[in-house]
Design brief:
Mean pLDDT: 88
Shape: globular
Oligomer: single chain
CATH architecture of the domain at 36-120 and 168-288: Orthogonal Bundle
Low-confidence stretches: none
CATH superfamily of the domain at 36-120 and 168-288: MetI-like
Strand order of the largest sheet: 1-2
Distance between the termini: 57 Å
Order of helices and strands: HEEHHHHHHHHHHHH
Strand content: under 5%
Amino acid sequence: MQRTKRRTNETNLAGYIFISPWLIGFLLLTLWPMAQSIYLSFTEYSLLDDPVWVGGQNYSNIFFNDDLFYKSLTVTFAFVIISVPLKLFFSLMVAMLLNKNLKGMSLYRTAIYFPSLIGTSVAVAVLWRNMFGADGYVNHVLSWFGIEGVGWIANPETSLGTLILLTTWQFGSTMVIFLAGLKQIPQDLYESASVDGAGNIKKFFHITLPMLSPVMFFNLVLGVIGSFQMFTQAFIITKGGPVNSTYTYALFLFEQAFKHYQMGYASALAWILLVIVAVLTAINFLVSRYWVFYESDGRDTR
């Protein structure tokens, strides 16, 4: 009995030793900064002086005295509502086109995925700014057809659209996940549907979409979370302008912290963002029971 207990303790000790690097990293690099952040959100802190406890004053100022807070939220929600469905749609369509057994298809998949390898880097943002500037490449191409271009970035009506287009263009990672999901759909389902006289549209809505719904849900959740953190594009391409038309929440938070040195205020903004994203994610999980289908559910998708 004692020998068995000793072996169990030794096994547990070995397990703790193996996970200790991750555990130490989590405690020091994640949990401790989060605790510091929530404390600073109730203080006035400028990096140069010691934090001064102000209670809920930061949150009160954010909700009742800061118009930029609501402006940044409006811009960010508009960005999320438009960019996430567009990215999901195009990535799914491209994944279906690439889900073919054709010669050279691997080359096409690599070429289409390539833009996502460079991610949301500064270089891509600078390239996009040069493309959609008043004298950029897009207007230059339009001039070949006698079309007078506009200042896409300098126009409040089109500036946010350029950022949405950039995000949609980088759909490679989402596309790869959809492609993996398409590969898992049994082909006999499509063959049975063809025997029953179903066309491509019916196959898509009654087989492809229900079978892909878990993958789509995964991409949706990640897309919403990632879109709320959109910063690099707005900072490099438009700097929040013109007329704050691209002034995203992450950019607002960054300026409060590193431009105005209001670290306590910025910490409060960060926790508000966390709550917003958590609530939206919870809503997605609650609603998913009505449109996400798993094989173990046994639900009819017709």
